Amino acid sequence: MVATMIKVHHNHEKVNLMSDSIITRFPPSPTGYLHVGGARTALFNWLYARHMNGKFILRIEDTDTKRSTQESVDAILQGLEWLGIEWDEGPYFQSERIDIYKSYVQKLIDTGHAYYCTCSEQEIEDMRQEAVKAGKNPKYNGKCREKGLPKTDNAVVRFKVPYTGTTVLNDVVKKHIVFQHTELDDFIIQRSDGMPTYNFAVIVDDITMHVNTVIRGDDHVSNTPKQILLYNALNEPLPTYAHVPMVLGKDKTRLSKRHGAMSVTEFKDMGILPEALVNYLVRLGWSHGDQEFFTKQELIEKFSLKNIGSAAGIFDHQKLIALNAAHIQASDISYLCRLMIPLLNQIGCNAEQGTFLEKVIFTLQKRSKTLIEMADNARFYYTDAVVYEDQAIQKCFTPASTPLMAALLEQLKQISEFNEKNLESAFHRVVEQTGVKMNQIAQPIRVALTGKTASPGIFEIIEILGQDKAMSRIEKAIMYINEHH
RNA sequence: GGUCCCAUCGUCUAGUGGUCUAGGACAUUGGCCUCUCACGCCAGCAACACGGGUUCGAACCCCGUUGGGAUCACCA
């Protein structure tokens, strides 16, 4: 049984189990990483279930044994967890439910809705060629349909699609779509190796798991009439369908590697906050008036199927980055500190939890678009061996600057308490003494302390660094300038 | 190619017959603030794909054209 694989989260006891409560699912196939398109679909399903106080199921569609891998399963689970998408049931694995599919196949055979087919690959290929020659679509011609063949070793099972008539899909976002049965053929529901095919496995899973709301990419629209026909043959009620427009790359083609980052872990590695990716992905194709910034809680409160747009959207990295900056600004310092410690350690900064880190992060919060950028800009707080950038040397380390730096040093010696206010006064005294502009003294000092011409405010930097470090860095800079001129 | 879907600034979108000389956000341009860089603030540029209808009136409804996308497996 699959019971051992079921991981139930108990943090949503509020879920009511009435028959009309919403049940959604996310059914990735483990053939690669969780990419942003899939993540968005998962998000919509999860958000809708939470919004409606329903249930969200995770199901791994691994009936393609050749392409499915454990690494992919792990990557998908990790991606979902990082995004904060928690499933109430599952993950279920289709590969462990073969008996269930087989019993449903038998039902269909017993009721005359499906049949065994022993046509060879070559025969089918010929049929297609023939159809194409006749100006039709490549299709199976129904050779075995009325033969009443018994089960044999290499037989597949096909579903009988009516030769005439139409199937209608009433979609929440696409509205009314009519499909002609003449466009379909008797598709395979069970492969010769006994595994179910996608269209069949999906509907028996959705039926047996009581999924009543299917939100998925609109690349599935053309599969839907087949699935509806299957529901009807099984005499089961249809779920509510919501086919959401796809996410496209910059050139308006289907998103792929050549469009840059695709998997959610790549975004994590880029220093994107999960709440920013969530916000961006949901907002791409869904809207709530003019609102751009959403916390997860707001998303759960405000998400609805009726505000999903009908046109495909293009993935825009710049907007993601901008939203990320907004989420960084809105984050608690303590949260950012927790995320930053490993990143800082990775680049050789020995960071640990504490007020020093908190102050550092505070100065960087407003000027960092990603966590990676933040870590990079935090370097100088942790390394005494400041590396001066060439451009900074050129611009700020002039012979004229050394007397100013020395004058400031004198003032710093006399400060009793090293706080921003006192430091500002010290700078102003130098300005008054020498008659130069503030930036003529501030910039060389900034380079002396950070190695760069751009940094957080000079007073806050000095306060955080403390008297000893600040003064020794300035002394070193003066020596450096003297040596090089 | 058949079938299906889609169409508002470069991008994401608001808009559901009159309040639209079309609003917001990202990007971009100029300015303010200022110790630098940011943040913030102010201002600017920028769109209803095209053609027919329906209507007193159309971004909104209908038809066509064009353009784009999806899909046509013993993949999902």
Strands, helices and their partners?
Blueprint: E1 23-26, H1 36-51, E2 55-60, H2 70-83, E3 89-93, H3 98-110, E4 114-117, H4 121-133, E5 156-159, E6 166-171, E7 175-180, E8 188-190, H5 198-208, E9 213-217, H6 224-233, E10 240-244, E11 247-248, H7 264-269, H8 274-283, H9 296-302, E12 313-314, H10 317-330, H11 333-346, H12 355-365, H13 371-382, H14 390-396, H15 401-413, H16 420-434, H17 438-450, H18 458-465, H19 467-483
This protein binds one RNA strand of 76 nucleotides through helix 4, strand 7, helix 5, strand 12 and helix 10.
Please tell me the CATH architecture of the largest domain by its name: 3-Layer(aba) Sandwich
Number of strands: 12
What would you give as the CATH superfamily of the largest domain? HUPs
Helix content: 40-55%
Could you provide a short overview of the structure?
The chain has about 475 residues and is mainly alpha-helical. It is about 45% helix and about 10% strand.
Description:
By secondary structure, the protein is mainly α. It has helices at residues 36-51, 70-83, 98-110, 121-133, 198-208, 224-233, 264-269, 274-283, 296-302, 317-330, 333-346, 355-365, 371-382, 390-396, 401-413, 420-434, 438-450, 458-465, 467-483; strands spanning 23-26, 55-60, 89-93, 114-117, 156-159, 166-171, 175-180, 188-190, 213-217, 240-244, 247-248, 313-314. The protein folds into 4 domains: 98-244, Rossmann fold; 257-330, Glutamyl-tRNA Synthetase, domain 2 (Orthogonal Bundle), CATH 1.10.1160; 333-382; 390-483, Arc Repressor Mutant, subunit A (Orthogonal Bundle). The longest helix has 17 residues, at 467-483. It is elongated and about 105 Å long. It binds one RNA strand of 76 nucleotides through helix 4, strand 7, helix 5, strand 12 and helix 10.
